[in-house]
Write a structure and sequence with these properties.
heterodimer, A: Fumarate Reductase Iron-sulfur Protein, Chain B, domain 2, five-stranded mixed β-sheet, two-stranded antiparallel ribbon, 7 strands, B: alpha+beta, Flavocytochrome C3, Chain A, domain 1, Methane Monooxygenase Hydroxylase, Chain G, domain 1, five-stranded antiparallel β-sheet, 17 helices, globular
């Protein structure tokens, strides 16, 4: 059975480069198959633009299966779009109504300057990770894997926290543009495992200091981050980060 | 030129240790004086860059994405193999070696595969120390599972996100070296040429993907860890930006290409649904641990799957391969799916799908267990198809997934260009004609953590490296050539988009250089590809400008390279008239329709030397099997 095709109106943020002023531009895409992904719909639009000698819309994307963390747009006011637990590339056109107008913007935060159109610079997140998003082990200089048992509940919760894909939606959704959920997730993942304990204090101090330096705001418990997180990382990550931070302070 | 694999002598189990003892070292103080470029930050690239940085080399690391953590290793779901024998099911290094070389249909080097199995255990130790949250049992020890082509449970996993977790471990190690100043990181860069001076790899030209500028990078050695070329097929499970340009540029500068026709078509992917489609999504092979593959016995049976009674279902893998059942290797599972669909017994709207059914597993183990094992995969399936696989069987079909072929390397992972090393999926080395599940992660990390740090030292210590500067003609030429290539692409202003060409190329490859190949189809493919390539340079329309972020131009450069590589894939497939692993020549099959090898004539690696566009010379590296006897692969 042929599925009913949709007509979609778009208001897309276009911005030439970091220094230019951006604006919304209107487009209409016809014959949208509801099984298409949101990014495939943008592909179709871009093909039309190229044929009309217009510049296609730049947007970051890579794996298109919700794991690399490269894609990310604000769709109708929500980072990664209408449904929770999804990345922008997971969004399907069946989630929209025929004739609907969709507003598409880049992730907005002081620490994420726009590069072009919907693509932003999230390298601040890498710089935070460089301050402690790891255990300081040398290649080869490690014990046999079985030598340190890890209780299953810890391993499971560590995995929940390690599921972060570093997309930055938490920052884009936060009224303060805080990266607390991102940092909290990594701090928690490693704090929950015996392998991460030896440098837990140094890690949290350094990562939090770098987060502040990058211009991310402070967390004031709005909880918007948790609501948009495509991997549904719990806000308990932030609580654990605070406890780890206090522990480090009073050490 | 005679290919020298540099495989050391001695017994299989002693080769690597003997070889390591013989490799030259670079003194700690001297390491600072050597620089190494690593292109790519997937498992192989990130682990290599981190390990070399840690040793004290000056490392330059580039990646195409905005962050090294995005490399496509991140998407690997199922797991990583290791010969730990934690399950007490009589696993061993020998068995992991044997399964891998057999799984590759005896088209890989014994010594490389054995070394891979040897270092597999150290990888697990490393990852655990990094905080990779592998699945654990209540006692605090590891849960393992089984993958295709193996009768033991040797696969370590972190839910359905093993690649992500291993990559984040390597990425963390890399970022630590970035922080310590040992690695300089250049994200959003695409390598557009290799620079060879006095016969040695001494640098690269890369395009800055934000400004469009062409930049040069110099070093004493270059490592490519840039992944495979599955995106040549347009639709694949690879990421949108995965490409072959780095290896192809190196190939054109003298690096031989090994076994380009060896492509893995993964059996369990979500079927295609429409023309707009940009990629195919893999459902981890681990699902075959508990899912049962079937199609209706009758052709054109349009009933709802749950209404088809047991006796009218054909569990064809269990029927044909009673020993391995649903766990046969990927090439066998894919080919059989194609066969039943070609018979008219495929399911779904297009008839190009088979069922992967969890009904019995849910009945026997409970929904909770299945949810715990595969919850995220079931969710992903639902997001894409809108269907609930707890209630109705999944529909799956094979898709291009991995390329066993790649740049030819010797035992030290060095290509035919001195100083150019190739790691991970980008090289041809360990998987022969078919890769077993959970072995790609193992190989990427083996190469990066435990092999290249030793072998590159031998090269650096033992090679006279002249001083070079950016003013060297070779750098200028490479830069100019890249600039004129991009300018040409922008200037054609034809009528067909890059995507239209790419899709056409993909259709030719899928239909004629895909799961099943024959002489006539391959000859047609070679002609069609070369025609399409000619049309491309005269009729492609590329948007925008050079000196800005321009993903359409990036893609245009990559498709231009795929249009050359694709021809070589078809030429290689045509010359290899035997079937082996993922390379199935219809002319060479057993009476039961299984791949029939021709060891007498084809027990070699085909390493292709680039002469000019559309022209290559083939060199052979004979494969000698001293420790295993190649047999007709049987999974019955």
């Amino acid at each position: 059975m042929e599925k009913k095709k949709l007509t979609i109106h778009l208001k897309v943020w276009r911005q030439k480069d970091a220094d230019s002023k951006g604006k919304f531009v209107n487009y209409t895409v016809n014959d949208v198959n509801p099984d298409m992904s949101f990014l495939e719909m943008l592909d179709v639009l871009n093909e039309e633009l190229i044929k009309k000698d217009e510049e296609p819309i730049e947007f970051d994307n890579d794996c298109r299966e919700g794991i690399c963390g490269m894609c990310g747009s604000v769709i109708n006011g929500t980072a990664h779009g209408p449904q929770s637990g999804m990345t922008t590339c997971d969004v399907r056109m069946r989630m929209f109504k025929d004739g609907e107008t969709i507003v598409v913007e880049p992730f907005r935060a002081r620490a994420f300057p726009v590069i072009k159109d919907l693509a932003v610079d999230r390298s601040a997140l890498d710089r935070i990770m460089s301050k402690g998003g790891y255990t300081s082990v040398r290649t080869g200089g490690v014990p046999e894997a079985l030598s340190v048992p890890v209780p299953k509940p810890n391993a499971d919760e560590a995995m929940d926290m390690a599921a972060c894909i570093g997309c930055g939606a938490c920052v884009a959704a936060c009224p303060n543009a805080s990266a607390a959920l991102f940092v909290g997730a990594k701090v928690s993942h490693l704090a929950l495992l015996p392998q991460g304990r030896p440098e837990a204090a140094r890690r949290v101090e350094r990562m939090v200091a770098q987060m502040d330096e990058e211009g991310f705001g402070a967390c004031s418990n709005h909880g918007e981050c948790e609501a948009v997180c495509p991997k549904e990382i719990s806000i308990t990550a932030i609580g654990r980060m605070r406890r780890e931070y206090l522990k480090a302070m009073f050490k | 030129m005679k290919l020298d694999s540099k495989v050391p002598g001695g017994h299989l189990s002693e080769k690597w240790d003997n070889h390591k003892d013989a490799l030259k070292l670079v003194s700690p103080k001297n390491k600072r004086n050597f620089s190494v470029i690593v292109v790519g930050t997937g498992l192989a690239g990130a682990s290599a860059a981190a390990s070399l940085g840690e040793l004290g080399y000056k490392v330059i690391n580039l990646c195409i994405q905005d962050s090294p953590r995005r490399a496509h290793s991140i998407a690997a779901q199922g797991g990583i193999n290791a010969a730990k024998n934690y399950q007490n099911d009589n696993d061993s290094i020998w068995r992991l070696f044997y399964d891998t070389i057999k799984g590759g249909d005896y088209r890989a080097r014994e010594a490389n595969v054995y070394r891979l199995a040897q270092v597999s255990n150290a990888i697990i130790d490393q990852a655990v120390a990094q905080g990779v949250p592998f699945a654990r049992e209540y006692g605090g020890y590891f849960a393992n599972r089984s993958f295709g082509g193996a009768l033991v449970s040797r696969t370590f996993y972190a839910r359905g996100q093993t690649g992500q977790q291993l990559l984040l471990g390597a990425y963390g190690a890399l970022m630590r070296q970035v922080d310590e100043g040992n690695v300089r990181l250049f994200p959003r860069r695409e390598m557009v040429d290799l620079v060879v001076i006095n016969g040695k790899a001494r640098g690269i030209v890369a395009r800055n993907l934000i400004t469009g500028e062409l930049e040069t990078y110099m070093a004493d050695a270059v490592i490519l860890a840039t992944g495979g070329y599955g995106v040549a097929y347009f639709l694949s499970t690879n990421a949108i930006n995965s490409n072959a340009s780095a290896v192809w540029r190196a190939h054109k500068k003298g690096a031989f290409f090994g076994n380009p026709c060896f492509v893995q078509i993964h059996p369990t992917c979500i079927p295609r649904s429409g023309d707009y489609q940009s990629k195919l999504t893999l459902m981890s092979e681990s699902l075959r641990n508990d899912g049962r593959v079937w199609v209706p016995l009758k052709k054109g049976d349009k009933r709802h799957p749950n209404d088809i009674p047991e006796e009218e279902r054909d569990y064809y893998l269990e029927r044909k391969y009673p020993t391995f059942g649903n766990m046969v290797p990927r090439d066998v599972a894919s080919r059989n799916a194609k066969m039943v669909c070609d018979e008219g017994r495929g399911v779904g709207e297009t008839g190009m799908a088979v069922y992967l059914d969890f009904r019995d597993a849910i009945r026997d183990l409970g929904r909770e267990t299945i949810e715990e094992r595969y919850g995220n995969l079931f969710e992903m399936y639902k997001d894409i198809t809108g269907e609930d696989a707890y209630e109705v069987p999944m529909r799956i079909y094979p898709a291009v997934h991995y390329t066993m072929g790649g740049l030819w390397v010797d035992y030290n992972l060095m290509s035919t260009v001195p100083g150019l090393f190739v790691l991970g999926e980008a090289n041809f080395s360990d998987h022969g004609a078919n890769r077993l599940g959970a072995s790609a992660l193992m190989q990427g990390l083996a190469d990066g953590y435990f092999i290249i740090p030793y072998t590159i030292a031998d090269y650096l210590a033992g090679t006279k490296l002249e001083k070079v500067s950016e003013d060297n003609e070779a750098f200028k030429e490479a830069k100019e050539e890249a600039r004129s290539r991009y300018e040409k692409l922008l200037s054609v202003k034809g009528n067909k988009t890059v995507r239209e060409f790419h899709r056409e190329l993909g259709d030719i490859l899928w239909n004629k250089v895909g799961m099943s190949r024959n002489e006539q189809g391959l000859k047609e493919a070679i002609e069609e590809i070369s025609k399409l390539r000619e049309e491309y340079w005269n009729n492609v329309r590329v948007a925008g400008e050079m000196n800005t972020m321009n993903k359409n131009l990036e893609m245009a450069g990559r498709v231009a390279d795929f249009l050359e590589l694709a021809e070589l894939m078809a030429i290689d497939a045509l010359h290899r008239t035997e079937s082996c692993g993922g390379h199935f020549r219809e002319e060479s099959q057993t009476p039961e329709g299984e791949a029939l090898r021709d060891d007498e004539n084809f027990s070699y690696v085909a390493a292709w030397e680039f002469k000019e566009t559309g022209k290559w010379e083939m060199h052979k590296e004979d494969l000698k099997f001293e420790f295993v006897t190649p047999t007709q692969r049987s999974y019955k």
